[in-house]
Amino acid sequence: MRLLTHTVTPQEAGLPVRTLLRRQLRISGSFLAKLKWRPGAITLNGIPVIVSTRTEAGDVLAADVSDLPGENPHIRPVAYPLDILWEDEDLLLLNKPAGIAIHPSALTEETVTVAGAVCHYLRTDSFHCVNRLDRGTTGVMAVAKTGYIHRLCMESLHTDSFLREYRGICLGTPQPSSGAIDLPISRDPGSLLRRTVDPMGLPARTLYETLLPGELSLLQLLPQTGRTHQLRLHLSAVGHPLAGDWLYGTEAPTLIPRPALHSYRLRLLHPVTRRWLDVTAPLPEDMRRLLPPDCDPA
């Protein structure tokens, strides 16, 4: 159970429960419409109340924002080890390995998914991914433990309260060595998977900086938007696809069997505690092998 509480201040005395749930606990109108029908989900001093109840100073308002069972019946829990970088009662920050999809795919039969592994670990059937990573992408990803936390995280995604930093290894050295790529993206009408640069597509912006130039260059990548395949497509579009990118560049299994892309750092403002979290995941071995031995990938 995830129980949120708030102690009514003298300034808030007289306000209805509904107002405090929306204002102080940041419960959305749509969620509140469901929550108020759950028996015992909203209490005042431990006693179930209706949302129109008036409060007094010192009252303790509580709301159970847990997920209800059966919200994701298609997810099959599976015992698979998770590399947990940080965890509390609201968030799970993972270091995702390569080769594992986030969700079950309609195109392939997935035995192991991040969703299934998380559901097994949390003993739940609910899965709320905040920053989705491609199957071949490694590194830091955030999972919310409830739909309530997921909504708060998604409100901060692509803002200064949720910063994502990637490492990529591309072919050649971009010129200039740092800058911004502003190219709109849409679906490729001839493919189920590919995206394409399209003047009529959705805006997409990527900041980049070359950390180590060469035939294979190490880049810092900062997506300012979150389009599918954005980093891969943007680098390909400027003539420097990621090493191993079979979809937007050239497949190179002897070099690296996947696109050389890693979610290196996640810095976010915790949606409940309002404290900053700053978590990094080290560059995986298959990408480190592409760099000089004395290179510092950070």
UniProtKB/TrEMBL annotation:
<dbReference type="GO" id="GO:0003723">
    <property type="term" value="F:RNA binding"/>
</dbReference>
<dbReference type="GO" id="GO:0000455">
    <property type="term" value="P:enzyme-directed rRNA pseudouridine synthesis"/>
</dbReference>
<protein>
    <recommendedName>
        <fullName>RNA pseudouridylate synthase</fullName>
    </recommendedName>
</protein>
<dbReference type="InterPro" id="IPR050188">
    <property type="entry name" value="RluA_PseudoU_synthase"/>
</dbReference>
<comment type="similarity">
    <text>Belongs to the pseudouridine synthase RluA family.</text>
</comment>
<feature type="domain" description="Pseudouridine synthase RsuA/RluA-like">
    <location>
        <begin position="90"/>
        <end position="237"/>
    </location>
</feature>
<dbReference type="Pfam" id="PF00849">
    <property type="entry name" value="PseudoU_synth_2"/>
</dbReference>
<dbReference type="GO" id="GO:0140098">
    <property type="term" value="F:catalytic activity, acting on RNA"/>
</dbReference>
<dbReference type="GO" id="GO:0009982">
    <property type="term" value="F:pseudouridine synthase activity"/>
</dbReference>
<dbReference type="InterPro" id="IPR020103">
    <property type="entry name" value="PsdUridine_synth_cat_dom_sf"/>
</dbReference>
<dbReference type="InterPro" id="IPR006145">
    <property type="entry name" value="PsdUridine_synth_RsuA/RluA"/>
</dbReference>
